[in-house]
Prior knowledge:
- The chain is an all-alpha fold.
- The protein is built from four helices and no strands.
- It has helices at 7-20, 24-31, 35-50, 60-92.
Amino acid sequence: MGKHHSNEYREYVAKMIVEEDKKATDLAYELEIPYSSIQRWVKQYKEKKVAGQSQEYITPSELEKLKKQHEKEMKALQEENEILKKAMHIFTKKPK
């Protein structure tokens, strides 16, 4: 009897294949999961996706993209904050 994997895990592996163009054969080897199991998970994932029942699990590359986007937004906010501080300093100076 093989290992039992949670539905979340199965869906996550399938999503990496469907959405990230990972090779099922590579993942089967890396994760030590029978290729036939992965094929079944992908089929189930695609069926669920068509039915609109798929949960959203973030893959590593999606996470990386979100992180970069967040860092970019934070940098923009910090720059904006610096400009506002300088403006406040200028406007609050007491005339001599």
